[in-house]
């Protein structure tokens, strides 16, 4: 999934870029403006730029500088599709999205008089203003020391790609297309790299009910690997079949588990113990939320971050254990896996 954040000056053409990506590249659009408009209407306020700024600042101050875009990113991540988040306006939003895989920040600008003419033509709720007010609104949003508030100047300076939109729509679309060609293939992030290694380790798994793998990393160096399999010297599921046991969770749901195998996370931690490798401060990569037993082992051996490809349907208890222990858990996708890798 590629995520494109769009920032830029008022009337520069952010919507034009969005339209192109949606119509010609199949991106899904998530709008900060639409998010704030909905909140403004809930509060019984008039939809105008002053209230956009007021409500946006209020939400960021009440939650976090990146709270609005985090809500939009969560929706985008759940879809698994390439997406656009428009429009990025604060340093906190840029910082939060920088931590997401395959994120790129686009910025667009144009001559102020050209932009004002476009604003007048589009005639949205926030655009019924004269030219001095237009300039004053923009200047107010260009810089601010408060990370909760608009700072377009900072966001534009942080952009991976900047576009000039003084010309025609076709000119802008051509610029965008050239950039899309550049980012169509990029080196994987470190998280993507190590998750791919975990998926490669899973090919050694010996239980066809869920072939999972795991790697443990520190300072971007691979420490140990593990995969689902029986204890050393004992028969594997692939050879003699599964050994099932049933368990009942706190909500009364019955789950059936194969207990012949050792989980990938457990095997990796055992490998580290046998080799005298300390795991304090390490990161563990695995296919989905570790089970409760694995979570407790992860906590006790000092691992501080867990990165999962997906969520496990019965993983809420483990997530809560991690939260209480101060272990950070992250997911590539919000899809829920129904069966454990065991």
Descriptive notes:
Helix content is 43%, strand content 20%. The protein has 342 residues and is α/β, with parallel strands linked by helices. The strands form 3 sheets. Strands 6, 7, 10, 11, 12 and 13 form a 6-stranded mixed beta sheet that branches. The protein has a 5-stranded parallel beta sheet with strand order 2-3-1-4-5, with helices on both faces. Strands 8-9 form a two-stranded antiparallel sheet. Helix 14 links the parallel strand 11 (305-312) and strand 12 (328-331). Helix 13 runs parallel beside helix 14 (316-325). The model has no long low-confidence stretch (mean pLDDT 87).
Features of this protein?
alpha/beta, 13 strands
Q: Using the CA coordinates, give the radius of gyration.
A: 24 Å
The rough form would be described as: elongated
- What percentage of the residues does DSSP assign to strands (E)? 15-25%
- The CA-CA distance between the termini, in Å, is 28 Å
The string of secondary-structure elements, in order, is: EHEHHHEHEHHHEHHEEHEEHEHEHEE
The unreliable regions are none
Provide mean pLDDT, rounded. 87
Described by strand count, sense and barrel closure, the largest sheet is: 6 strands, mixed
Structural class: alpha/beta
- Helical content stands at 40-55%
**Count of discrete alpha- or pi-helical segments spanning 4 or more residues:** 14
């Amino acid at each position: 999934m590629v995520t494109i954040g769009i920032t830029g000056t008022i009337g520069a053409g952010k919507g034009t870029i969005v339209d192109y990506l949606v119509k010609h590249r199949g991106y899904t659009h998530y709008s900060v403006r639409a998010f704030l408009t909905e909140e403004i209407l809930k509060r019984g306020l008039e939809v105008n730029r002053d209230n956009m700024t007021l409500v946006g600042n209020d939400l960021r101050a009440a939650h976090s500088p990146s709270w609005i875009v985090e809500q939009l990113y969560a929706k985008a991540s759940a879809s698994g599709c390439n997406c656009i988040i428009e429009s990025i306006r604060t340093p906190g939003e840029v910082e939060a999205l920088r931590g997401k895989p395959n994120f790129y920040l686009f910025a667009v600008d144009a001559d102020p008089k050209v932009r004002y003419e476009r604003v007048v033509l589009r005639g949205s709720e926030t655009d019924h203003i004269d030219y001095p007010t237009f300039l004053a609104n923009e200047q107010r949003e260009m810089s601010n020391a408060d990370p909760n508030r608009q700072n377009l100047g900072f966001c534009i300076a942080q952009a991976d790609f900047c576009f000039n939109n003084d010309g025609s729509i076709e000119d802008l679309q051509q610029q965008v297309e050239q950039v899309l060609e550049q980012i169509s293939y990029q080196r994987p992030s470190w998280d993507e790299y190590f998750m791919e290694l975990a998926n490669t380790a899973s090919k050694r798994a010996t239980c066809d009910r869920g072939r999972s793998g795991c790697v443990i990393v520190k300072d971007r160096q691979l420490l140990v690997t593990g995969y689902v399999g029986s204890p050393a010297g004992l028969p594997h599921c692939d050879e003699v079949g599964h050994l099932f046991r049933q368990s009942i969770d706190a909500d009364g749901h019955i789950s059936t588990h194969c207990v012949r195998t050792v989980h990938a996370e457990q095997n990796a931690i055992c490998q580290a113990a046998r080799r005298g490798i300390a795991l304090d401060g390490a990161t563990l990569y695995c296919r989905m939320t570790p089970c409760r037993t694995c979570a407790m082992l992860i906590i006790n051996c000092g691992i501080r971050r867990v990165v999962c490809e997906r969520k496990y349907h019965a993983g809420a208890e483990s997530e809560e254990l991690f939260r209480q222990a101060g272990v950070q858990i992250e997911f590539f996708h919000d899809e829920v896996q129904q069966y454990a890798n065991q």
